[in-house]
Structures are given as structure tokens and as C-alpha cells.
Fold this protein.
Amino acid sequence: MKCEAAQEIIALSVYGELPDDKAPQLEQHLAECEACRREVEAVQALAKAMSLHPVEEPSANLIARSRLRLEEAIDALPRGSWLLRGWQRFYQGAGRLRAAPVAVSAVLVTGLTVGGFSGYRAGEHAHTPAPLATVIAPASQQDDGSPVDIASVSSIVREPNTENVAVTYNRVQAETIHGSLDDPQIRQLLLIGAHNRINSGVRDSSLRLLADECHAGHQCDDGPIRNSLLVALRYDKSVAVRLKALEGLQPYVADDVRVRDAVLEALMKDPSPEVRTQAINVLEPVEADSSVREVLHTVAASDDSPEIRTVSRQVLDQLPQVQ
Amino acid sequence: MSADSLRFFPPSSIRLPSSAAPKIKSSSGMAIDPSVRATETDLIRQAQQGSRTAFDALVRQYDQAVLRLALHLTGSEQDAEDIHQEAFLKAYRYLGNFRFECSFYTWIYRIVTNLCLDLLRRRKSRREDQAVTLDSSGEEIDLLTNVSDQRASANPDRELNRKFLGERIREALDKLTPRERMVFELKHYQGLKLRTIGEILNTTEETAKNTLFRATRKLRASLAELR
């Protein structure tokens, strides 16, 4: 060992930090080297001298004061401490992130399973319309005896990867019902008939019957029938139906503003002079009404048909005292 | 000369200071009572969950050691008190970050030594500034000069001599860099193992050894004229 190396570890040896493997070498070197022995003495002397600046125990006073001050400082923290704790919790939680990959995988797998299953179910529902079941159910019930009248097959859907198919079909079963015109069920059927867009004969008959009933004042106060007549008056293509509707509405022109407006509209706009003439007649109970008079003036001045103009004027002329 | 005879333990100073002071010490060769450590681990966990009582118990376990170190390093009760407060407030704030990767003793000492190093660095730069501009107006320098004068003029009373030597030693210590001062303090006065010192100062044992060697060299040079 050379002096330089020895001197570097002499301080360590004085402080008891000399590695065991170095001790014999140092010992051997010191035995031979006077200068390094003096170095040891010098370091020992230094260590001894340094103890003249001793470590003092903190006074009880200082300890007490410090503790008190610290407690006060911590007490002053609480307002922020929930935030602090929240942060600490978060930080601690972040420490547990090592477990996160497993948790994330678990959540992912669960999510995929649930999502896939519900998606499959939703798809199943989408391809299996609910009415189908109700249609099929009676069919299967009737399989045992009476043959089912099938009008048409509207759709066929094969369930994926199975032998099953879902067939949607329409059944037609004609039924006849007998009853009084006052029977609510009959009236309901007449209303349905009045909306029949395919068979104008049915529509015509239904409206005629309903109009007659209304004209006769048989339970026509309820909305649906009167509404059907109003709709027929405004939009039906058949002049006969519109005339019938007008007839049916006649009893209500005095009381129902909607009826009156519809009749006035017919008077102004209906393409058929017949309907317009009839409208003037229907309006008789409300001729004095200012809105009616206004329309009559307009019609008297500008209607295409000279007869209607004349009739309008006559009606107006009959009301001089009001004017 | 036997190897044992080379081992020198400075009187009283290297002895681990009293009672409450670290029976629990770092893993590197300090006395560890397993039951105490278990209790300490529980305390730390409780404190991490927000128990103030547990934290107070931890403070009481270490605050005397902290004050002792700070007091000796700074030579000022006020500074020691400030460091004590700042260190434990930091510990309180960041206890949640403590992961048991090192001993709590090392962790708390890391906080304290960092605060002390900051203070020493501030002082050193202040003193250097003063040395350039004014030589005798600084209070501290005046005091030292007075002590020195007293000694020079008065008869060599033993107590006074001791006091004078103590001051000279402090002066010599002040000439060290903050890091050398810290390593010397922890080794010579606090009696820690160099490995622990390395852990506390976030460096290697080898670096701590070299720093200690440099510190002893500088101290000897500073104090040579006394001999």
C-alpha cells in the first residue's frame, strides 16, 4: 500500500468505517511508514479536537416550544387538508396502479361481454317484430281444425344459423255485425268506413248514414262523428258525399263555430255550385252573423255561378233591418 | 499496531444521543427493535390515513434528534426551531408519498438535511458577500473578533481556552462546503454509518467517504495553526 492510498483510508479507520479487507494492508503499511503513523495521530487529534464543539441536547424548553409551534401550524392547515388528503389518497391510489392492468382487463372483458350480449339481444328483437308472435300464436292454435284465411305473406326472415324462419302474413276474416245505428259498435264501424280510402262506396254509405243520424239529431254530439263530417265536407272528392255531410252538419251550424266556418269555407271555395247553394241554405240560422254576411257579400259579388250570386243577394236583401 | 487501536471514537460525541433518539435507525446497521418497527409502520400507516394522533407520535419519536442535529449544525435555537417546524410540516404534507422503500428515519433525515443544507448555503453566500464588502461590521464577525481579542489579552484561563477553541472549530466547520459540513456532522457528531449518510443525502457510500476525507483534510488545514 502506498502512502497516498493509506492516508485516504486513515480517516475511515479512525471513524470505524475501514472495510475489513483493507485493515491488514493498512496495519502493515503503518508498521513500516512513520509519516502515515503521524497522519493517524493527526486525524485522531482532529477528532478529539472537534469534540470541543460538542453536540448539545436541545433544551426541554426548545422541544416544548417547537412542538407547540408545529401543532399550531398543522392546526392552521385543516382547511386545505381535505384537499391534501384527497391528493394523498390519489397518490396512494396511484401507487396501486400496478394492479391496474388486471383491473382494466377485467373491466374491458366484462364490458365486452355485457355489450356483446345486449347487442345480440337487441339485434334479435330488431329482427323479430313483436306483432309476429301474436300473429303466429293464434295461427298455431287454429292449426288443429279450421283452416286459416291467409291474404298475403308480407315478410320472411330466417333466424341466423338455425332452421327457424319467421313468416309474417295477413289474415282476412270477413265478419258481419247486425245492429241499430245507435249502437256504439256500429257507429265505430261506420266511422272506420267513413275513412275508407279504397272503397268509395263504403265511405259514401258510411257518411250518408252518419249524416242522416246527425241530421236527425241522434247522438251526434260527440266529436268523432261530427269531425268525420267536417273532414268529408272539406276534402271528400264526391259531391254527393259533401252534400250529405252538409246536410248532416246543418243542425250544428248555429252552435258550433267550427261547423259554421267549414260551411262558410265550402260556400267560398267548393268547386261544386250545388254544394255552394246548399251551403247558403244551411247557413240560414246564422245569416245575421257578421262573418256570414261578409262571406255572402263576397259570394254575391264574385261567385262564378249567377244563380248563387242571385241567391246570396236575396238572402242579404232579406236582412235589411240588421244592416 | 493493531487494527483495533486505530479505531477512535470521539468522546461522548459519537455515542448515540439519549433515550427517545433513534433506537429505530436505518437498515444499515442501526439498532432495530422489530416490535418498535412494527409499531412505527402501524403509526405511519395510520398517519397516512389521516390520524393526527399517530402523526404526533411519530413527531415525538424523532423531534429531539431533529432538533439536536439542526441545533448543532446551525448553532441557533431559532434556526433549529424553524427547521423542526418546516421539516415536520413537510412530513405531514407528503407522508402520503412515503412508500416504505427506505426507513422512515432515513426519510425524515432526508427532509431535515435538505433544509439544513439550504440554510447553510444561504448563510455561506451571505457571508461571502459580506466578506467582500465589509469586514468588521457584521455582527457575527465582530463577536468572533471580540472572543479572539479577549483570549489574546487575558491570561490563558482554561475555560476561556476551551471556549476559544470551540469558536475556532466552528469557524473551521463554517469553511467547509455545506455538503462536507453535513457529511462530517452526520459522521462525527451524529455517529451515522457512511452508508446511511449516502442514503440520506441521496448519494453513494463511496461519495460520502470521499467527502468525509476532504472534510477532515480541510479541517486539519484550518486548525493547523492552533497546534
Notes: Chain B is about 70% helix and 0% strand. Residues 20-133+176-226 of chain B form a domain with the Rna Polymerase Sigma Factor; Chain: A fold (CATH 1.10.1740.10).
